[in-house]
Design a protein that fits this description.
The structure is a homodimer. Chain A has a seven-stranded mixed beta sheet with strand order 10-9-11-12-14-13-19, sandwiched between helices. In chain A, α14 packs parallel to α16 and α19 crosses α23. Chain A is built from 23 helices and 21 strands. By secondary structure, chain A is of the alpha/beta class. In chain A, about 40% of the residues lie in helices and about 15% in strands. At the A-B interface, α7, α8, α12, α14 and α16 of A face α7, α8, α12, α14 and α16 of B.
Chain lengths: ~625, ~625
């Protein structure tokens, strides 16, 4: 235990008091916000930021060698803003804009606030984000910065935390420090473990972390713990701090029923009495880190793909090949996979570019959190697993949109076409899931060439992209020189007499082409469009086809809601034509891909039957209309 | 350590050999399936089912007092089917239908196979399902059955397992036994911990479970461990078994690269040599349990709700009230909440009917798994948290559809209307998520009365229901006697001269009514429909409105894809009219609900503006058309 000068301790305690004062005022002014959750961690965070351990260049929050601080307990945002006000980075006045429309001091932090490393607020995600940043420091940027994550005790019940705890130990990330603010009280009562900090420590230690237990309001203990954490060289460190919710305002301390409640005006006045004499001019200083920056590799152009038309290749294999091919064009591209790289074919990249591949094991939530952390540090993560298993991380995917993240998701084994493994392994809701994110791009190539081109487009695109790949092989139908842009489509078959238009993506493009052949023999010409860019959809081409042919049939290997069919409907909504949506209309089971496409109504035969029915009805309607006029 | 008779051990070993033989044949015949994953657990499962501990009435798989066996490692389905063949419950011949189209022996088990307790196959979910069944035995049915869950080692990296581990210890469920099959090899190489069974045991023990470590191929050890587990009275039990992947077929044992691979015909022949002399007539016996059945409470009719028209009530509050009101009408209804019951208002039920409320803490994945387990045992779980946080459990929600589950999900805090907490807490993708499940029902009532009625309808409905509630209060607009059916809607305003139809749900119904007032003053009559049943949507009423008014504007507090607007488009797709979709078109931030609805384009003002534009365009078009004809 180090000896600390009394004046130093007193300075930090006064800072903590000021920080509590700011938290009180921000939330009371807003009549909204989590005051007691902020108060419990004030001493811990004051000790961290201003106690001499943390390294941060305050006028360059994005400096690559800054230590990183993540509030996994994002609802303690008043504390976050108060800390940086105490550092002199934001105005006291601005604190009073907390939670107001337009303010960058939002209810839960997002990177609109420059000192928020990532958007948090959905609990249990911060440790994984921090793991990503620590992994970046250790394995990619090769910089000495540390990553600190403030954790709530309630959120330790989230499994995602334990995914991160396992993986950080496995990767021996000694530059990752978690701090659990054990204040005993959750949203509606005591947590499972209450104030039993030894229980928390035992659990974390069992996973291979170094653990320290402290009194979270004892500044000397706090400083010692941070110093010890920073000296750790072989394991990640978890500080488990016993704290009091509401600490610093007497009538709130350890009292249940105050979670998420701001004080009313009378209570505010009452609380302010306890801050009389607070020194509002006080500021804390933070030492800047060494001005080290990562080496920036120069992008080199990639080779072009070489596929033979007609050859059968699985688009998942083309994915692995593409990622490898463009690796040097995108030096910041990294690949993360959830223990299925020999299925997603990320293993091709892993074998060729091992320094940029990270096995995430069967823990999809953490995988996405890690990807977010890497993305915030300038990397371009391609996150792969089965399309069906990306649903495991929907909350993390959802949250990533609020962090200006640049994540690429790759879901393999799309649709009933995967066959015998059955529905637990089938991606049947994934198009809907990714379309639902406001700012997403959704791509579903049908052959190896378009896959390769769209992987490049995805890497070059700024923002979230979802790329859906197939388990089964499909014939190469595009020339290696063909270009594919996000928002585009390909008209594969057309005549001036097309009776309607088939719009498909992925496996169903090939079903549509087979149907086209059959229909041609039946004397029914139809247009065929490969809508490989599901979002944004090529509305112009759809409009042309709608105007020219008068009706559309969409076909997707996906359940009926939220996918390709509804995208097409939405694109034509202002001047619609009749649209028939073929999708998986029955719960699938085991079987071959062909049997299942037939069973669920998305096969070439189903398309032919549907077109026949529509054309007959239309013809009958035309005859009836003609008869009526006579 | 008990002494076991040599003949007994020999019998069990022979059974295990037969079971391995069945697994080999089933997968080899199918040319598909996870053989090595099945072989590693064969001795464990043989010892469990036929060793004298397990209690099961084989001709009544759904007997309420049967012990329950769940294969969390669902890909070991060959083993599951082989076990029950050895019990004499299915034909050896049927085993050869494994993975074939139409067979009930699917690639991953579903309850189409009567001895599968639930559909598994997406890893990491079985322990929570088992927890639900154990909770049912202990707290609801009050029966002595035990629940056993076979776990893979790779899937222990899934955080959901640790959610279950925490909660089972907290609830002191001594009737829950997990068995980890530590065979060292994952899908593409060694797991994080390899064969270190002590490491697994230490981790689980730190959470308060009793742990036993054994050699998973030593039958006496296996029998002793199960006997010891069954005697446990105060803690859940985890058996950690060191096993060999591929055990029983020499060229597969502990060999990497065989995960998920079936043998080809030559390899099959080679393997069969190792089973020469296998006794195919051998059968194992299982003792039936005590014929205890739970008390069946008699449903009693519920009181009717009493709300005053015009009064402001939050639909989330009406939810809590409704659940409480109908509790005695549905004696098997239970409530699960993720530590936000004072936000979702499930706390109203918790206070009145505490025996049927279960706090799940902040662990949404496990909450849904537990709900599935309860549902499989005949309960009707209402699972509540913020709509946004239901995305945390999308994989569990997705998987539940394959278990013939009867789950009711209740997501509160819908949309930007929640205000200052900001987007991390806002449900903006939840309608799309729930619509995407093939067999789901999606309801979004706009006032307290309709909420009460739809909670009843949800409870009475057989199948998955999602009910979306609001944080903010809304005026009661319906009479207490009004009836609301799944698939229905309410036409709130209509005339014979309506220029178009507004279709809304939840908060936007009230925006639409405000807009209607303004438009009426502007001399533009519009129809207003409350589409409280988003799925199935009331296509008939929409069709009437489309035919009568010629155009539709939909308004939802939700992102644009996959929600109300696209539902309406889909319902009218065969004979469409122009549809304008108003939805949240910008990334929200903190602010008041009103400010945010304005900012994102779903307020009454936005509706009025849109209608004005459409009506002008239409009018201009009509004039142009008229001018052209002259």
């Amino acid at each position: 235990m180090q000896r600390h000068s009394p004046s130093r301790i007193a300075h930090l305690q006064s800072l903590a008091r000021l920080i509590r004062y700011h938290s009180l005022n921000a939330t009371s002014r807003a009549h909204s916000g989590h005051l007691t959750s902020s108060l419990s961690a004030a001493d811990l965070m004051t000790g961290l930021l201003f106690g001499g351990t943390f390294r941060f260049k305050v006028d360059e929050p994005d400096h690559p060698n800054n230590d990183r601080l993540i509030f996994s307990k994002g609802h303690a945002s008043p504390l976050l803003y108060a800390l940086w006000a105490a550092a002199g980075c934001i105005d006291e006045q601005e604190l009073l804009s907390y939670r107001q429309f337009g303010s960058r001091l939002e209810g839960h932090p997002t990177p609109r606030f420059p000192y928020a490393e990532a958007a948090t607020g959905s609990l249990g995600q911060g440790l994984g984000i921090g793991l990503g940043m620590a992994l970046n420091a250790s394995r990619l940027d090769h910089l000495p910065y540390r990553t600190y994550v403030l954790l709530g005790d309630s959120e330790m019940s989230e499994g995602s935390q334990w995914e991160a705890i396992q993986l950080a130990a496995y990767y021996q990330l000694a530059n990752l420090v978690g701090i659990i603010d054990v204040n005993r009280l959750g949203q509606r009562g005591q947590t499972m473990l209450g104030h039993d900090i030894e229980a928390y420590a035992r659990r974390v230690a069992a996973f291979g972390w170094k653990t320290l237990t402290i009194d979270g309001h004892d500044m000397p203990q706090i400083l010692d713990a941070f110093r010890e954490s920073a000296a750790e060289r072989s394991q990640p460190v978890m500080m488990v701090a016993r704290t009091v919710k509401g600490k610093g305002i007497s009538f709130l301390e350890d009292a249940d029923g105050w979670h998420g409640k701001a004080l009313d005006d009378d209570q505010w006045k009452q609380a302010l009495v306890e801050f009389s004499g607070v020194d509002r001019e006080l500021r804390g200083t933070i030492t800047a880190p060494e001005d080290l920056r990562p080496e920036r590799a120069t992008p080199q152009s990639a080779a072009v793909p070489h596929y033979e038309i007609g050859k059968s290749v699985a688009t998942r294999t083309a994915y692995g090949a593409a990622l490898t091919r463009i690796a040097r064009q995108f030096p910041h591209l990294v690949s993360l996979d959830g223990e299925v790289s020999n299925s997603t074919m990320a293993e091709i990249f892993a074998a060729q570019v091992p320094a940029r591949f990270f096995e995430m094991f069967i823990a999809e939530q953490n995988m996405v959190e890690v990807a977010l952390g890497l993305s915030r540090r300038g990397k371009i993560p391609f996150v792969s697993t089965f399309a069906a298993f990306l649903t495991r991380a929907f909350d993390q995917i959802r949250m990533s949109q609020y962090s200006q993240a640049n994540l690429k998701f790759v879901g393999s084994h799309a649709g009933v076409s995967i066959g015998e493994d059955g529905p637990s392994q089938m991606g049947l809701e994934d198009l809907a899931m990714f379309r639902s994110i406001l700012t997403s791009t959704v791509l579903h190539p049908c052959d190896a060439v378009s896959t390769e081109k769209l992987v490049e487009a995805a890497a070059a695109h700024d923002g979230m992209v979802y790329l859906r790949t197939l388990r089964q092989s499909t014939p190469v139908i595009y020339d290696n020189e063909e270009s594919f842009r996000i928002g585009g489509s390909k008209v594969l078959r057309q005549t001036s007499k097309d009776r309607l238009t088939l719009v498909a993506a992925g496996a169903t493009v090939h079903e549509a082409l087979k149907a086209h052949e059959q229909l041609q023999r039946d004397g029914i010409p139809v247009r065929v469009i490969d809508a490989y860019s599901i979002k944004p959809i090529d509305a112009t081409t759809l409009r042309e086809a709608a105007d020219a042919t008068g009706a559309i049939v969409t076909i997707e290997d996906h359940y009926p809601a939220g996918g390709l069919g509804e995208t097409v409907l939405h694109a034509l909504a202002d001047r619609p034509v009749p649209v028939t949506i073929l999708a998986v209309q029955k719960t699938p089971m085991s079987g071959t891909g062909e049997e299942l496409r037939d069973f669920t109504g998305i096969s070439a035969a189903a398309i032919v039957k549907t077109v026949g029915r529509l054309v007959t009805r239309e013809h009958a309607g035309a005859i009836a209309g003609r008869d009526r006029r006579h």
